[in-house]
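User: Fold this, then the next.

Assistant: Folding the first:
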Amino acid sequence: MIKLVNQLKDYFDPPQDGPVTYEYYVRTGKCNQCGKCCSGIYLIHGEEVISSVPQFEDLKKRHEDYRHFLPIEETEQGIKFRCKHLQEDKSCGIYDDRPMFCKKYPSETTLLMGGSLAPQCGFSFKAKYSFTEMLDKAAEKKKLNPGKLLNDVKPA
């Protein structure tokens, strides 16, 4: 039971330094307060990048955490944002009360949704499995036999 509680705590409020193990990646390092994750960023709602200011204004009415951000630039990919609480020294003005997604950043979801860490970021990710191991795991989930083509699998 204690192990489960610790896993849940690490999921909802992961430590900000040292290794954190996720399903596919291990995150290492620590925040070096470069401020890049708080400025010039894209925000996601569901699995889509917020793409317009009206959409953002609507989301702010329904989801309190979006109120921490200001739109700064419109691009082909969507709207780039800056956190209102980013201080000139790159520290967080509300660190102890920051939103949950800030506490969880960066998680493997960042990578799985196509995001990346800034080059200056003190965190890094390492895959838990080799490419071959990942294929084997995927085949096992789909109940495929290694070496078989998808068309060769007979429906159950």
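Now the next one, as you asked:
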Amino acid sequence: MRPQSAPWRLTPIAMAITAAEVNKLRQMTGAGMMDCKKALTEANGDFDAAVDILRKKGQKVSASRADRNTTEGAVFITAEGGTATVLALGCETDFVGKNDEFRALGDRVLQAAVAAGVSTADEVAALSVEGRPVADHLTDLMGKIGEKIEIVAFDKVNGDKTATYVHSNGKIGVIVAFAGGNGADLTEVGKDVALQIASMKPVAVDKDGVDATIVEREIEIGKEQARNEGKPEAMLEKIAMGKLNKFYQENTLLNQSFVKDNGVTIRQLLERTAAGLTVTGFKRVAIG
């Protein structure tokens, strides 16, 4: 008796993916051509499923590199009317920090944040850009580039006028707000004050803005220094307060000596520019 032949088994035929489809997915996601072709093939030509596959790849990269430090990146700044806004986007290498796609994404995210009027980095990540959350765009770029990418900082200041500064390496940015001055032209002094902040790293506008914990720490340090120098216990408080005043002079913006002319303070520079002109707030953002 002849053995029965094995039943026919149908072998799935992979759907042919055209170059036009690959390019369409690439335009939609920004992912590489080969990644797009693989995703479309795996999804059997389903664009939505292919996008999910690419996103999952990005999420895997994000999770696997969660402990990596984003010591490189770029600062993005814009000023409109009396508001200046700064966004810092971090990555792992200088090469990616200079990448055109990385920088283009930073610009788009900043503009979306300004348009939406958000105030925190978490709010920025949740924003919709081109119909998708910013967090998803970051994940997509991580999947494509293979590096951790994150929002390092986001801040803004408001005033009668603002000034901005971005250092030549693109990793230090300053936004500063002014009040008063009776409409004076602040182009030159604004640039000088922003550069002062970038260079001298003040902790506050004036001594009243210094955090109480910093004040307490400086007083204790001053006392301990005086004690180690053999000063009498009864003199420690007075000596510590003197050291605190020196701290204010060196670390609060209005009391700092102007970097371009040590003979004047920033407060005096502003008064010399226009009566009543002062700084109401600033933010200094640095990557690395």
